[in-house]
Specification:
Layout lengths: L1 H17 L7 E3 L2 E6 L10 E7 L6 H4 L6 H4 L5 E5 L15 H15 L2 E11 L1 H13 L5 E5 L15 E7 L20 H7 L5 E9 L2 E8 L6 E7 L9 H9 L8
Parallel strand pairs: 3-4, 3-5, 5-6, 6-7, 7-10
Antiparallel strand pairs: 1-2, 2-4, 8-9, 9-10
Helix pairs in contact: 4-5
């Protein structure tokens, strides 16, 4: 009886140990990842998820503390999940890359640890990780509600096996690290050509400028007359960075809320 009582007393601590958060990585056979729970979560309500692929030579430890990423997810009831790329990088060039299986394994492990709102799984990434986010949803994105990509793409002539329900991409016109991918004849709509074709979209609609912070203005183009899905492209005049407020703005719109900052 004493042994049984001791075991029962240990159960709460075991449950806590299973919920790795912050700087403590969640280990899985395929690799590891980090998690940031939203502020004030009650421990039972289903959580939307943002799976974010970090930039080159970064790790998930940075993402779960990043003001322009975690600073927005934690205020919006969204669970932030940040896989660690092998060698601090991602192989997004190869459509058969093992990194796709890593991303899927991370999502499945998160579902085993948390009550996930499976209708609100969002995939994001910045720079090298932005390209990895494209690669992931292109190969295994059938259950993804939206792709939120920042300054990173893949070859726009590729054909994707799957697609998210919606695509949102932002890119700086003065980016010198992963330059803005202008198309033939100087076409500035080229960054989302792949998804416009995959979704069967018509002409772009200029929605005008918007800004989450006073010092950064973005111009939005949208494709809503598509056979399936929806596409938006945000341009700004800056370089290679995560625009202040951009992730939070997209999450608010996707979840049917009035966009705000932060």
């Amino acid at each position: 009886m004493r042994l049984i009582l001791l075991f029962l007393l240990c159960l709460p601590s075991l449950a806590i140990a299973e919920r790795c958060t912050g700087q403590t990585p969640c280990e899985i056979p395929e690799g590891s990842y980090h998690v940031r729970e939203p502020d004030g979560w009650d421990g039972t309500s289903p959580l939307p998820v943002l799976l974010h692929f970090h930039g080159w030579q970064r790790q998930g430890t940075l993402i779960v503390n990043h003001a322009r990423i975690a600073g927005h997810t934690r205020r919006r009831g969204v669970l932030l999940v940040a896989p660690n790329g092998p060698g601090r990088s991602w192989d997004w060039w190869n459509r058969d890359t093992a990194n796709i299986a890593l991303g899927r394994a991370v999502l499945e492990d998160v579902k085993a640890r948390y009550p996930v709102d499976t209708d609100r799984i969002y995939v994001s990434g910045y720079s090298w990780g932005g390209s990895m986010a494209w690669r992931f949803v292109c190969a295994d994105g059938a259950d993804v509600a939206a792709l939120l990509s920042i300054s990173g793409t893949i070859d726009q002539d590729e054909d994707c096996a799957t697609a998210p329900r919606e695509v949102r991409h932002v890119h700086g016109l003065s980016d010198t690290v992963m330059p803005y991918p202008t198309g033939p004849g100087g076409d500035e709509m080229e960054p989302v050509a792949l998804w416009r074709r995959a979704f069967g979209c018509g002409a772009a609609m200029r929605e005008g400028t918007w800004q989450a912070v006073p010092w950064l203005r973005l111009e939005r183009f949208a494709w809503e007359d598509c056979a399936t899905g929806r596409v938006t492209l945000d341009q700004h005049g800056g370089g290679h960075f995560i625009p202040h407020g951009w992730i939070g703005w997209q999450l608010d719109q996707l979840m049917g809320r009035e966009p705000r900052y932060p």
